[in-house]
Amino acid sequence: MAGLGLRSLSQAPRLYRAARSAGASARDAGGVLLVSVQALSTAATRSPGRFGRQNALRHFAWQACLTAMYGVEVARAVAVEQERGTKRPEDTAVDEHNNEVGRRFGAEHARELRDLPVRAAIGRLCDVAEPMWRSGELRVVERRR
């Protein structure tokens, strides 16, 4: 997580503003940041040293949890802001795909996910994401050799 942590912290104000612009209350926008940090931390713990897998799990769990807890509009706005200014279109395309898969799952399972504490919800979502990643439903960028 060391390489991702500083960038993620520097994006917190942008993600907060994106959530607020999409209709989240100040409290819910703070919750968006909590979900974001938990998704980053859990994915890093589950897939140390495997960035592609870690990234796929993180984006899926992050967007599924945000959608379940705060709605698809807030989740989408935060994801768009997260990707704004990235310099690698292939990374953005993969992230957008995994985000959309996560939002669909979050919408379909919102009731059960909302009943869980954030840490438990993200953990459950990472459990769900593992077989999706193995089957190719979640995507990774193929790194050049």
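^ that was protein a. below is b, sequence first then the tokens
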Amino acid sequence: MSTPEVIALSGGLTLDSVCRIQAEVAGRLRAAALGADAVGAAAPGAATPGAAGVVLDLADVTDIDSTAVSLLLHWQRDARAAGRTLLLRNPPANLTSLASLYGVEDFLPQTAV
């Protein structure tokens, strides 16, 4: 099993910053997916056992709005389409609250480590 890549985000994850963050993180997400291609092809939408996943560490995120929820769901869809896993580490309380309010918390899985 491959070790997942950890991408640490910091600062605000809001409408004002989402374009910059998307540009910064998109390449790293693609690289993690390409790096895992040696594991083998998976059925569309299925996580590949042993494939390198990505963990988004949100410990240093200071501000969240609904734009963050949308962006994280977008990244989650992209990861699943590529047969990869995307997990959240240290999500801020306001993110989990918003995800629960919108009924999407099950689509943003978390990791304890």
